[in-house]
């Protein structure tokens, strides 16, 4: 039985190695920092920033309440879950991740509306942090949609992710 050498980037899988024996299964070792993994982590992290648009992050004690903030909380939660699922789809190289990412980005764009309404109820946009938050979410969501629907951007992304 041949044992794989480090030169061909293979290693023995300890799960299948018997007690004191050389395992019969060999698995491929893949690099951890690939563009696919970095993109998946970025998508996940972008999704988690939608929590910043909830009542809990307004800096008010107690947090504001009302219909706008309730709708905002639901939309932000859907965006967070959606981007998390899309990131998992990228990581696992699933074909459906693009649809989930676009839906999550659309929900994220929709979440800006009740956020602005909620902010106007408690005094409006009063600092640059809120403006940056709004701009980041609008631009980020538009960028996700563009990466899927603009042909040249989509082709570049597909080609880059498929090299892995």
Report on the structure:
It contains five helices and two strands, in the order ββααααα. It is mostly helical. It folds into two domains: about 30 residues, no CATH class; about 130 residues, no CATH class. The protein has a two-stranded antiparallel ribbon. The protein is elongated and about 60 Å long.
Which descriptors would you attach to this protein?
164 residues; mainly alpha; two-stranded antiparallel sheet; 5 helices; 2 strands; 60% helix
SSE arrangement:
Elements: E1 10-12, E2 26-28, H1 35-48, H2 67-91, H3 97-121, H4 128-149, H5 151-162
Antiparallel strand pairs: 1-2
Task: Give a concise summary.
By secondary structure, the chain is mainly α. The two termini are 29 Å apart.
Distance between the termini: 29 Å
The portion of residues forming beta strands comes to under 5%
Poorly predicted parts: 6-10
User: In percent, how helical is the residue content?
Assistant: 55-70%
């Amino acid at each position: 039985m041949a044992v794989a050498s480090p030169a061909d980037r293979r290693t023995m899988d300890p799960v299948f190695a018997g007690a004191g024996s050389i395992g019969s299964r060999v698995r491929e070792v893949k690099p951890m920092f690939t563009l696919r993994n970095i993109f998946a982590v970025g998508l996940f992290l972008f999704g988690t920033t939608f929590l910043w648009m909830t009542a809990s992050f307004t800096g008010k004690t107690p947090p504001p309440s009302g219909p706008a903030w309730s709708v905002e909380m639901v939309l932000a939660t859907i965006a967070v879950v959606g981007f998390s699922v899309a990131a998992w789809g990228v990581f696992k190289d699933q074909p459906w991740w693009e649809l989930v990412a676009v839906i999550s980005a659309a929900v994220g764009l929709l979440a800006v509306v009740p956020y602005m309404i909620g902010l106007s109820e408690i005094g409006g946009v009063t600092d640059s942090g809120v403006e940056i938050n709004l701009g980041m979410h609008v631009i980020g969501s538009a960028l996700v949609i563009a990466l899927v629907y603009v042909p040249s951007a989509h082709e570049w992304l597909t080609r880059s992710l498929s090299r892995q």
